Amino acid sequence: MKNHAFSIFLYFFTATIFAEPPEKYWPKKITIFKDTNFKIQFGNTTGSIKVPLNTEVEVAIVNLPKLKVTHNKSYAVIDVGITNFLELAIKAENESNNSEAIKNDLPISYDSGGWNKVEWGMTKNDVKEQYPKAVKLGEIDNYTQNGQNFTSDLVMANFELANSLYYVAFLFDGEGKLGGVILTMLENATPTDFKTLNSLISDKYGPPSERETKPIRNYESYTNEYSRWNTEKCIIKLNLISFPQVYKQIIKIIYLNPSNPQLDKL
The whole model's pTM is what? Predict the structure, then answer.
């Protein structure tokens, strides 16, 4: 159980190391971890009731390290350290920051078109300058997107996005110009991962122009759930490929240069 000294320590430790969470992240409801006497008004008489630990109370006034909280028609001024106020506030701030970081990873540049730091039409050396950790493979991988052939021997492992790691393949057309990027999640994916990414991309570009689940050709038990966004500078396709027989799901995010006339459809 947290005592008064510990509550003061917790507040100053949090304020010093993490900085006090901004007001917009302060929770409206919190849980108290100590039996607490609450004051209650009966006409002109003030009484008290004991509110047991693990009770959810409402936050009325914040003046850290003190909180004024209410429960039913009673109230109390308590130390922040006997509650989960800071835990909830820091969690809300971190989730917001993570979401913003994820959104910053997802967008393309509307000025030039491309993905993240790279632009359509870049050479392999250009891409390598932007991503020094990208490595050249000993063999060339071939990719086909609706009749358009790409090659890739420049890849990047362990690219972090939305708290997951991805394998990134940079796709080059016949002239050696960057025409696409494919991100493949390294760990086994889940429908929740797909839903989170779908929501984040939609926040940036609006609802997908297409969304469908269909069997993979020649493999009726395998399915591909996908969403597609058509933007002026990029075609984005989010895929959740399921292999139920081996309990495996893969997420792929495909970015393509829409200026190529062969890319009317993926």
Answer: 0.57
Domain with 253 in it: 106-263
- Burial letters 139-152, b for 16+ CB under 10 A, else e: eeeebebeebebeb
Q: CB atoms < 10 A from the CB of 232, how many?
A: 9
Q: Are 89 and 103 in contact (CB under 8 A)?
A: no
pLDDT digits (tens, 9 = 90+) for 29-81: 999 999 999 999 888 888 999 999 999 999 999 998 899 999 999 999 999 88
Query: Do both 111 and 230 map to the same domain?
Result: yes
C-alpha to C-alpha distance for 54 and 39, rounded to whole angstroms: 18
Q: Are residues 95 and 164 in the same domain?
A: no
- Alpha-carbon span 162 to 153, nearest angstrom: 25
Domain count, the chain: 2
Residue at token pair 């970015």: 255
